[in-house]
Automatic annotation (TrEMBL):
Name of the protein described by the UniProt record: Alpha/beta hydrolase
Organism of provenance: Microbacterium salsuginis
Taxonomic lineage of the native organism: Bacteria, Bacillati, Actinomycetota, Actinomycetes, Micrococcales
PANTHER family recorded: AB HYDROLASE-1 DOMAIN-CONTAINING PROTEIN (PTHR43433:SF10), HYDROLASE, ALPHA/BETA FOLD FAMILY PROTEIN (PTHR43433)
InterPro entries (alphabetical): AB_hydrolase, AB_hydrolase_1, AB_hydrolase_fold
Boundaries of every AB hydrolase-1 domain copy: 46-255
GO MF annotations in UniProt: hydrolase activity
UniProt xrefs under Gene3D superfamilies: alpha/beta hydrolase
Short name of any one Pfam family annotated for the protein: Abhydrolase_6
Keywords assigned: Hydrolase
UniProt KW Hydrolase keyword: yes
Length: 272
């Protein structure tokens, strides 16, 4: 494994880890996650390193990566482009995104970042009445909590409104002091994912022009034991994209092991 730094277009330093050589596979974490909290990424990378150069990076504002204000979703497209160009050797990459990291990947592909194929795991999409939609002022409430020095309130808002945990379960998360401190430390970045989500959790059908420039193969994964609304969201994304295929991962919920992820990505690349 090699740790390194790339410089994004606005000068922000983005930290990454890389394994192996070959065509690049880039892993993007979802909301609140980064390299130190997702050991399954390293486990998958180690299994794929015999054929691929696997890159896992800390999104801006998390882990060892820096941040530069003001935030805009396009800054994270530039971060991904820098990772592909500098850490991946400039070759079009296979990009995999967990949860809202999958929406970032889709949005970046729509914006023209050089991506050869896309894989996403349970992107947060709310269509119909599978669950209550995300309130229209969600991002503004996150921003206000952080600006007013209430990072814990931002985390609670994310856990209840975005994740959908009952308030008592979200309060239980707070009892783990170490985990809660980590969540509060990256609270300013939760709104970043809220902006990447955009209208996809509104409960309305996906707009016809959403991701209409994506013409590369797309793999949409979901656990067959996941929450019904997450499976419904994955199906909605797969149905929306003409080049997409949908696969259920046996026995999994909102995540999977490095071994299962590595096998799914290897098969996806070889089939496409």
């Amino acid at each position: 494994m090699l740790d390194g730094i790339v410089q994004s277009a606005d000068g922000t330093r983005i930290a990454y880890s890389a394994w192996g050589d070959g065509d690049p596979i880039v892993i993007i974490d979802g909301a609140t996650a980064h390299r130190a909290t997702t050991p399954e990424n390293a486990a998958a990378a180690e299994r794929l390193a015999d054929e691929f150069r696997v890159i896992n990076y800390d999104r801006r504002g998390r882990g060892a990566s820096a941040d530069t204000a003001p935030y805009a979703p396009e800054r994270e497209f530039e971060d991904l482009a820098a990772v592909i160009a500098q850490a991946g050797g400039g070759r079009p990459a296979t990009v995999f995104g967990w949860s809202s990291g999958g929406l970032l990947a889709l949005n970046a592909a729509q914006a023209g970042v050089p991506i050869a194929r896309l894989a996403v795991f349970e992107p947060p999409v709310v269509v119909g009445d599978a669950r209550p939609p995300l309130r229209a002022d969600y991002v503004e409430r996150l921003d206000a909590a952080v600006a007013e020095g209430r990072p814990g309130d931002a985390v609670l808002l994310f856990l209840t409104d975005a994740v959908g945990l009952p308030p008592e379960m979200a309060a239980g998360v707070r009892e783990d002091a170490s985990m809660w401190a980590q969540l509060e430390a990256i609270a300013p970045t939760i709104a970043y994912d809220g902006r990447q989500v955009g209208e996809t959790m509104s409960g309305r059908p996906l707009r016809p022009d959403l991701w209409d420039a994506i013409d590369v193969p797309v793999l949409v994964l979901h656990g067959d034991a996941t929450w019904p609304q997450l499976a419904a969201g994955a199906r909605a994304v797969a149905d929306h994209l003409p080049t997409a295929m949908l696969r259920a991962v046996p026995g999994e919920n909102h995540g999977t092991s490095g071994e299962v992820l590595a096998a799914a990505l290897r098969d996806f690349v070889k089939e496409n």
